[in-house]
């Protein structure tokens, strides 16, 4: 597989899974489970969790 395709596949994998990867990193560095869950679910549709909604709003600003 060419380097371009490998990089493209890696990019897509990170792009589509970044919430889960971010949650894993948060857990590994010792953040509390609440933060881990907020990061993990920040792209969920129709969330009723106020903190997730706040993160979604902040994410839209970037």
UniProtKB/TrEMBL annotation:
It holds the Pfam family HD. Gene3D superfamilies: Hypothetical protein af1432. InterPro entries: HD_domain. SUPFAM superfamilies: HD-domain/PDEase-like (SSF109604). It comes from the Bacteria. Residues 16-60 form the HD domain. This is HD domain-containing protein. It comes from Thermoanaerobacter kivui.
């Amino acid at each position: 597989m060419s380097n371009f395709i490998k990089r493209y596949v890696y990019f897509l994998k990170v792009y589509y899974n970044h919430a889960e990867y971010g949650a894993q990193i948060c857990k590994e560095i010792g953040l509390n489970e609440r933060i881990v869950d907020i990061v993990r679910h920040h792209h969920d549709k129709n969330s009723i969790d106020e903190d997730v909604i706040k993160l979604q709003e902040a994410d839209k600003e970037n």
